[in-house]
């Protein structure tokens, strides 16, 4: 067995020895949203807390009702792009009406899967890879009442950072990512500065992507536009500015944007894991020496390789 294979085996054994609960910090807070909240109030709550996703709680039945994410807001945006006459209704639409809206446009509805917090971390990673979920709720049950308890939400990033911090074997994953076929190179959804925001929202809603690279006429990477950017734009301007170009939409982006994280096809998984250890990473844009976009490396690509590569 070569060094890379031994490292992968050690990391998998580590994942099997830990539970999902082990990944959680000593102190944390969780924001839960009642399904009776309006979309407008929900959006403000999410952005005020610096998050794009939260568990839903059905207070009538006292149970977990799914995981709201930026994808759901992209679906609502697409619904209104197709039906501008419905724009006034958005202020009164509640979270428990989302299923009807998403069904109308044929979109995937709110995610309801969950994992028990004391399941092995390996099982949780398996679930994330197979479902391609960006995050998974950890749901326990009160032994006395039988009621569900939302413990936390585990993200791909949190899992990979936990591995990067606790498994020195990640340093041995030195094969270049181009030799592992890790990146998505084909059928990439990209945009230019002149692309209409409505077209990007369409890609977010239809294909479930959360980020679109922005390139110039030579395919040189200029920026990225994220589902989170759409949410902040909606907060300030409502569901009405979808005719904007991406260039103009970027001018309204909050100044705290963390920037675009890139890698080259010659970088290794070890290099990417070190980047994850040091920075908050959601995906990496793979570029060549001239800065031209070659592909995207997502966190689920990395997790899939660790689990099954």
UniProtKB/TrEMBL annotation:
Belongs to the 5'-AMP-activated protein kinase gamma subunit family. Signal peptide: none annotated. This is 5'-AMP-activated protein kinase subunit gamma. The lineage of its organism: Eukaryota, Fungi, Dikarya, Ascomycota, Saccharomycotina. Transmembrane segments: none annotated. PROSITE patterns: CBS. InterPro entries: AMPK_gamma/SDS23_families, CBS_dom, CBS_dom_sf. The keyword NAD does not apply. One of its GO terms (molecular function) is kinase activity. Keywords: CBS domain, Kinase, Repeat, Transferase. Pfam families: CBS (PF00571). GO terms for cellular component: cytoplasm; nucleotide-activated protein kinase complex; nucleus. Residues 183-242, 251-309 form the CBS domain.
